[in-house]
Amino acid sequence: MQFKTVVGTVVRGHGVASGQNRNPRFPGGTIQMQKPVFAERGLCLDAYFPGTINVSTHPHRYIVKQAKHTFRQVKWAVDAPPEDFSFFDCRVVLRTGQRVNGLIYYPHPETKPEHFQDSATLEVLTEFIDDLSHSMTLGLELNPSQLLIMSNPD
Questions:
Q1: 79, 110, 144 from 16: Cα distances, Å
Q2: pLDDT class for 114, splitting at 50, 70, 90?
Q3: Taking burial as the number of CB atoms within 10 A of a residue's CB, which of 52, 66, 106, 150 is the most buried?
Q4: What is the structure's pLDDT at 131?
Q5: Cα separation of 33 and 95, whole Å?
Q6: Is pTM beyond 0.70 here?
Q7: For residues 139 and 7, is the Cβ–Cβ distance under 8 A?
Q8: In this structure, how many other beta carbons lie within 10 angstroms of the beta carbon of residue 21?
Q9: DSSP three-state, residue 106
Q10: Superfamily name and number for 4-151
Q11: Torsion angle of alpha carbons 85, 30, 125, 55, nearest 10°?
Q12: Which of 72-76, 111-115, 146-150 bottoms out in mean pLDDT, i.e. has the lowest?
């Protein structure tokens, strides 16, 4: 698989995926709640930390080409409508040069009821990474047949 690298910055998310915002509707976070539903559909997320790393690729944006996995009409919470989700291969490249395998977690905006990301921010699932902090710069390797990175015409 041929990866293309884009440089990104870790940005603060909504804290919903990890449960850090302590929303009582999503005890333990949305990822923890969604894991069994995705496992039933063939995608095991047990190797990943139950939260996302939000990476801004600004001034670039991404274009969805072909997901590795797509799940339609996922009913994962009692008080939330069904959503569509896609997952894409990625690797996080740390300052040390270490590469960490991951997945881009993409709740389809047209079915997502709240907590939207801008067109330059990707949500990344990986194992827990020590010393990760907001404003940190890192590389994000993406499969261009799955996600294409484009310059944002500002």
A1: 15, 18, 28
A2: low
A3: 52
A4: 87
A5: 32
A6: yes
A7: yes
A8: 13
A9: strand
A10: Riboflavin kinase-like (2.40.30.30)
A11: 90
A12: 111-115
